[in-house]
Design goal:
The chain is of the alpha+beta class and 107 residues long. The protein is 20% helix and 39% strand. The chain is globular, with a radius of gyration of 14 Å.
C-alpha cells in the first residue's frame, strides 16, 4: 500500500492513467475510486493526493509534460482537467497516439 500527498504539486502537467486495479483519489468533495481506464490531468502547481490499499494490486502509468498549447489540445479532444475524471477504453490506442503526435508537432 502507499499514499501520495504532494502539497505543492508539480511544475509540469501530470497525467495519471489506471491500467488495472483501484486507486483512491482525494477530491475536493470527498474520495473517488479510480478504476481501469480512468485517467486524470493535474495542472501545474496543483496539490494531488491519492492512496492504494494493500488488499489489491495496482498498475498505473503517468506522464509529466509541459507546453504552451496543452489546454487547447485537451479541450479540442473533449478531455477534462482535475477534478474531472476521464475514461477511455484500453483498446482505443489511436486516441493516445493521436494526442501524442499533435503535442509533438506543436513543440
Amino acid at each position: 500500500s502507499f499514499k501520495t500527498d504532494n502539497i505543492e504539486g508539480r511544475l509540469d502537467y501530470y497525467l495519471m492513467y489506471i491500467v488495472a486495479g483501484e486507486l483512491e483519489l482525494e477530491m475536493p468533495k470527498g474520495t473517488k475510486t479510480l478504476t481501469s481506464g480512468n485517467f486524470v490531468f493535474y495542472p501545474p502547481k496543483f496539490r494531488y493526493r491519492y492512496a492504494h490499499k494493500a488488499t489489491s494490486e495496482i498498475e498505473y502509468m503517468w506522464l509529466h509534460f509541459t507546453g504552451s498549447d496543452v489546454l487547447t489540445i485537451i479541450e479540442k479532444y473533449g478531455l477534462k482537467m482535475y477534478p474531472e475524471i476521464n475514461k477511455i477504453n484500453h483498446f482505443n490506442y489511436n486516441i493516445s497516439y493521436t494526442h501524442c503526435q499533435e503535442i509533438k508537432l506543436r513543440q
